[in-house]
Amino acid sequence: MIPAAPVWFDALHVGDVIVGDDGALGFAYTENWLATEGAFPLSLTIPLENGVHRSEIVSPWLANLLPEEEQLYILTNSLGLDRADTLAVLNEVGGDTAGALSFGVRSDRSAWAYTPLTESYGVADPEIALERHFEDLTRRPLLVGEEGVRLSLAGGQRKSALAVLDANGMPVLRLPDDGDILAIPRHGAPSTIILKPDNPILPGIVENETYCLRLAKAVGIASAEATVLPAGSRNSICVLRHDRRISRTGALQRVHQEDFAQANGVPPGRKYERGTLRGPDLATLLATGRHLPPTDALTLLDQLIFNILAANTDAHAKNYSVLLPVGAWPRLAPLYDVSTVLPWPHVVQYFAQNIAGKKRKPANVDARHWDVIAGTVGYRPADVRKRVQDLVDRFVAHRVAVTEAIKALPGSSGGYVEEAAGLVEENALRVAGRLRRKENSGYGCGSRG
Ligand SMILES: Nc1ncnc2c1ncn2[C@@H]1O[C@H](COP(=O)(O)OP(=O)(O)O)[C@@H](O)[C@H]1O
Ligand SMILES: [Mg+2]
Q1: Distance from Cα 380 to the centre of ligand 1, integer Å
Q2: What are φ and ψ of residue 358, in 5° steps?
Q3: Nearest residue CA, atom 4 of ligand 1?
Q4: Which of the residues 19, 60, 248, 266 has the least number of beta carbons within 10 Å of its own beta carbon?
């Protein structure tokens, strides 16, 4: 067995990915990390214990850090690596990952550097520079191959992770404001925002996702801070990273996180429940809340309800995450990657998990199904129904204000905002309507299907 990739949290050596004689990957924490006060585990599935953690857990955990689908395909092709060779790919791109860890190369603060997009693309207009950046990403996912850039993020959408600098060139943890500068992090520097450009296959996705995330916040569910960023002839959604923080001394730091595929020990290919090898079902996702404080477990239920009400059918296990901060209990990460599928009939309309034992579309969610969901976590059905109704009421109450706020953002197109808002509300009201109908007709009696 040979240590093949050191794993770093800032300058601290957390452990090593190890390759066995048979090529199987393992992971071992360093003595130092195990003795460090406030040390966090890589994963809820990889506890802070001596010895080599097994490949069955470690391999899928690592694979979940990499991009997926076409993004992984183009990236590995340009690196001349096999898609299945997770460790080799991570050694190339695993400098700035989801969470706090850097693979291979130590993150040395004195080497951190940021290059403004305008400088990188040699254009004065920041919007045009961003447009060029998005074109660049079609050839080089996550800027693979760019000197000093080692970035990895999961997901199938084209995306970038950049840093926001203030007018003095200092990194700041906020969505870009007037006078701020977007910059490419290099040599171990952390990114602070994630950007996803528009996508002709999913028209209006930028407005759609921004609407859903801001609606969630408006109804009281913590969600990624999101805005629309114009980029010449196109636009993009920009979210603030929740796995970054500013320390008391003003230093930018990474905060560890893992997604629910990682927290449940499944590889990225099993993020959906459907498939020959089944991924996590709703009960498993909700049961992940047992690691969280009770208020966060309730928020997890809220996130799940929100995704059903908003018809976010793509809410698979990688679209829920848990934060593993230094010296503190695990917390639920804010809601992220939410869009309503309803404007796109060509995209799979079934939810990522079965609801009450069957695959279902948003229009088919019935009162009885909420009772089954409640039962899986031991909540009272009446409480869950009440929570659903309460959230629907809030959807309606906040629709206009959220719609107007997003329509007013430069780069957003009002028609798409209205479309997403209308479809989300229609879906939520349909769900609420069924809730009432069932209650009036006698709870639990004569239900079908
Ligand atoms: N606001 C955020 N803060 C920190 N990490 C995030 C945030 N949003 C997304 N991520 C991470 O980036 C990954 C990809 O982002 P996501 O929006 O889910 O992209 P995609 O639409 O391609 O699935 C997520 O799985 C998660 O690990
Ligand atoms: Mg996602």
Answers
A1: 32
A2: -135, 155
A3: 241
A4: 248
The reply to whether the predicted model has a pTM over 0.70 is yes
- pLDDT tens track for 82-136: 999 999 999 999 999 999 999 999 989 999 999 999 999 999 999 999 999 999 9
> Cα separation of 122 and 116, whole Å?
10
Residue 415 pLDDT grade (very low, low, confident, very high; cuts 50, 70, 90) = very high
Q: Which residues line ligand 1 (CB under 6 A)?
A: 98, 153-157, 159, 194, 224, 239, 241-243, 259, 318-319, 321, 336-337
Determine the residue of 212, 255, 312, 337 to mutate for testing ligand 1's pocket, defined as the one with the most ligand atoms within 8 A of the Cβ atom. 337
Write out pLDDT tens, residues 356-382.
999 999 999 999 999 999 999 899 999
Cβ-based neighbours of 16, under 8 Å, separated by 6 or more: 3, 4, 5, 6, 7, 27, 28, 30
Contact 4, 223 (CB under 8 A): no
pLDDT level of residue 437 (50, 70, 90 thresholds): low
Q: Pick from 244, 303, 336 the residue to mutate for probing ligand 1's pocket: most ligand atoms within 8 Å of its CB.
A: 336
The ligand with the least distance to the CA atom of 210 is: 1
Write the class of the CATH domain 256-440. Answer: mainly alpha
Q: How much distance in Å is there from the Cα of 348 to the middle of ligand 2?
A: 15
Please name the amino acid found at residue 74: I
In this prediction, residue 4 carries a pLDDT of 84
Domain ranges of the chain: 2-103, 109-240, 256-440
Is the pLDDT reported for residue 15 higher than 80?
yes
Residue whose CA lies nearest to ligand 1 atom number 18: 337
Whole-number Å distance between alpha carbons of 227 and 213: 9
